[in-house]
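G., the chain you wanted modeled:
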Amino acid sequence: MEEIRGKHAVIRFDGKKCIHARHCVLTRPDVFVPNVAGEWIYPDRATPDELMLLAHNCPSGAIVVERLDGGAQESEPRVNTTAVRENGPLAFHGKLVIEGAQDAEATRATLCRCGQSKNKPYCDGSHVAAAFAATGEPATRESEALAARDGEVRITPRLHGPLKVLGNMEVTCGTGRTIFRATELYLCRCGASANKPYCDGSHVRVGWKSE
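Predicted structure as tokens:
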């Protein structure tokens, strides 16, 4: 974990969680300077509001900003979502509690669904080397509107099995369409399900091990 303290904000960067979405270096290459040796993060080159926006656009939670100017810190969203990324991880946004994980409480996290990550339950980019193929545009399933759309979401990576998700959750495709709503979900993380992103028990058939 890198911690860079500026005059008005602190940036914390966790490289183990980074999935290289590159929103930071493309949006503010003066703050997150790419392809340099040594120091590469400069919080004082942007306002606290701008830094908060950069953090919010980091899907993995690798970037966290703490304001020192008395302004509002990052808050949980009004709608909890799980975005299915094309050939990649599941991107969660909500008041998250990830059981058994380091930094278990978060608002943003990208969790592995290819089964190959060396940093489970987080994605570490292994889906690229593994040539993992899974659509980011699954079919819409019939579901009823949730009574509430926010609140705590508890994610339990089950041993040698799926992600158990408890809490109000809207599953979205890569382009933002809501494909399912539920308060309890079992999402594939072995990469073998024929019903991705949902678990269909294939982890048992293929003998997948989460450790």
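The chain is about 10% helix and 30% strand.

Shout if anything looks off.
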